[in-house]
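Table S2 (text version). Query chain:
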Amino acid sequence: MSKPAAHGSIRRRLLLSLLAGAAVLAFVVYFVVQTVARQVAQESQDNVLAASAQSILDGARLSGGEVNVDLPYSALSMLDSISDERVFYAIHLEHEFLSGYADLPAPEGDPSGAPAFLSAEFLGEDVRIASVRRRVSTGAGRSYLKVSVAQTLSGQKLVLSRISRISITIGAGFFLISVFMAGIISGSAIRPLDRLTASVSRRGPKDLRPVAAPVPTEMVPLVASLNSFMRRLQQSLLRSEDFIAEAAHRVRTPLAIVRTKAEVIQRVSDDPETRKALKEMIHAIDDSSRTAGQLLDHAMVTFRLDHLVLEEINLLHLVHDTVERLRPTSELKDITMQAFGEQDSVIKGDPILVQNALHNLLDNAVKYSPAGSQIDVVLALNQNEAEVCVKDTGPGFPADELDSLPKRFVRGKNAEAVVGSGLGLTIAKEVITAHGGTLKISNNPGGGACVSLLFPLP
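Corresponding structure-token output:
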């Protein structure tokens, strides 16, 4: 049985889609954790820097129209307590430098007094700077006093690096858990399809009942189409079976009627030419009838082999029944037909096909055996086989054609004068092969043919 060409896998596509979603979510988790951690760290540092700058600004005093600034110990100690960062500061009155690091970059202060922040590079290090200012009155008028405090970012970078590693671990763990869950989910999603496949695969060749098992909504159209196909197939098979039976009846009956009338006319006719023509006509009718019959038999055999249903067969009973069916035909040629076999043997097979195969072998034996001869049908049991052997006293088989005779429409060189179609051994070969057995063709030592059907025993 040929398999349809596979184009991708639903399970793989679903799994890859879930994994792609998991990878995106893992990246989002990493990005969110990184962003939040960076914002929290920066806000924390900004708050401390702003508080330190504000503390310095609050300690500024006016004395004699001049600004005096004392650096409170707490203003810078709160920065030292956070980490081992370096701290810088600068105090300006308008554009006049008062104290600290003169070249320390500083953001423009907010006129409202709110802290302003800036990230910059100072003395070869990245720093975060906070500036606050307020208006003061001096001898020269009202001016802005601005205090800037800066702190290096190396400690913050270390913290963010640790948080980054933790974020990667969390993202990787989330992804690994997602891989496990994706495998479970994809297997669960595809399981109804597996159950449907198993349900259909377990059916016999003639089991064309509609699939009634509950399926997910997405599979309802597929199951409905499958049920519709099986219904059409069942109707087609029934029509084919009826056609074969009807064709056999309609072909054989008219030919039999024509043959009977030709024989009647032959008996009453006194004209030698007419009798000769009628004889040739009867021979042609026999040939046509046999060929048509065996073609229809072969069609029936092919049909049943495609839908083979095995059941127990009592081979001894089948042999005796087939012999009795052909006994009237053999007696017309004064041929004695006997069946031998005392032990019952049971095989697994299609009784109609097995009987048809044996019928063709016996029909060939009757056709090729001379009048007054004998045909023996012997049933014997071997170790693992049951053998049905048909022996006749006809011309036998050409020794150089034994391998080719079971082929379709092939006949022996010594059988050209006998009516036949070359399908009898073909049918027997196809039937026995379908049942796991062997067709054996040979010649009897004393003359005649010996054809055996070897069936495996269950």
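Notes on Table S2: The mean pLDDT is 78. Helices lie at 10-58, 73-80, 154-201, 220-268, 272-306, 315-332, 351-368, 424-434.
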